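step 4 of 6: structure.
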Amino acid sequence: MNPVKKIPSAIRLGQIAFARSGDKGSGANVAVFARAPEKYEFLRKYLTAARVQRYFKPLGVGAVQRYEVTNLHALNFVLPNILAGGGSRSLRIDAQGKTLGQAILEMKLKR
Amino acid sequence: MPSEEKSSSQQPAASSTCRIGNAQAFWGDSVDAPARLVSQQPDLDYLTLDYLAEVSLSILAIQREKDPSLGYARDFVEVVKSLVPHWKKGVKMRIVTNAGGLNPEGCARACRDALQKAGCGHLKIWVVDGDDVLPIIRERSDEASFRNLESDDPIKTVLDRLVTANAYFGAEPIAQALKAGADLVITGRVADPSLVVGPCIAHFGWSATDYDRIAGATIAGHLIECGTQATGGFSTDWLSIPGRDDIGFPVVEVDAGGSCVVTKPAGTGGCVSVPTVKEQLLYEIGDPDNYLSPDATVSFLDLSVKQAGKNRVRVKGALGRPPPDSYKVSATYRDGFRAHGMLTIYGRDAVKKARLCGAGALQRVKRAGYALERSLVECLGAGASVPGVKQAVPESALLETVLRIGVADHRREAVERFSKEMAPLVTCGPQGVTGYAVGRPKVMPVFGYWPCLIEKRHVKPSARRLES
């Protein structure tokens, strides 16, 4: 049986992954790490740049770029302009993207 | 005092590993951490301390305006004093820090005076500077140069408002100082991982073109530059981290090939595991095949991360290529003023009430004659960290929120006018407004961040010994 099929059809990302985010000027990155190799295949297939871009659209994110880091079972998402100015300029409580890792782990991921 | 002789800066023989710790991730991190780390791990070869975030130098610029002898992280002088007993006991650990900020020479002098007073005047202090490129930018600001790396805007849009502009130097001047016997190397702006790469080059005698080794040391530096973020802090699984109230600062044991083991002192809290190390590896990373540093362009794509004992994780397989021809420059410019005010609102429809309070306060500022350039009303507790992203609990179910109003304007007086409109909400707002104890919001200057590039040939790093 394909191990990917053992994962239910809709899950909360935090059930199969951990994450970390940080700022890069007025953008940010969020890295998502599979908790097991077979879960990485699931992430690679379903956690697309388009889905992440749609999820963070209300924050004004630009074109999301996804990098596969297979050796770490990780996907790294670069999120331009998500911080409304970033650093000392943004008026938001999270001007540095510290919370984006926790936010993405709340995403419901459908096949 | 034989101990003093021992602690003088003879070159250590190149041993098989170079043990480097970090005990300061940013300006404002624990001030006790350096002395604690050294007492927990007295066999450190090098201690690195990072004080400079992207806009830290603009804060130092304000200090320097008030007193030209300042402009550096003054906390570091206290750290140096706290380490005196360890040097007197004979520890050989040498310090590499960017605490010099805008004034490495001034920082070095303050450290020298403190060390002389404490009977450690024999320690050799080196200064690395030359990273201040503001005069060069002012002279050569043609249309094509120094464009904002994010927006591609030309520098002329902020030229008359620039406050600081500093190039991120690499490891070379640090290595030069250490090879010459420095006990303390105090720099201005350098790339964070270079604080670790410099000691490795000096320790192992690598050449500047040993790119794979330098890439490995760059990874080691990146892993420890944020202190306890590598040892359990900031973890997704923070609730399962042991000893959270005393997380040990990280130590890397770099070998001659550039691989490293990430660890922490025995008996400290936190943990070093494959997940904690992986998370830190990709922290603030863009393209993992092209991590740009002034010492090498690094690929993360062949790295292996394996547990190699309790609280020991081996990281190997970094690949390096030549670095870019330019230094990255972090410039800051004045961008008006801002203030934030907060009030707690409790009760039914708390979020709805909070939004109306926020809109009302801004309306009153407008009526007073100031249409603010930027403003934002947030309801903390209702998902304000990621505005618009669907929350598990609907707003209408919340009985409590913290109203946070932020404003920004180039006119100081407009922001000041806003700061007077928070307190009236206690009596004109809904029932259940509380928490107005901190007084009026403080008006703060805003510094914009301007990342750009400068060709290496325009800049010359300087490393020199501070005369005693």
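step 5 of 6: annotate
 - The helical segments of chain A are 37-46, 49-55, 100-105.
 - The beta strands of chain A are 10-12, 17-24, 27-34, 65-69, 74-79, 108-110.
step 6 of 6: archive
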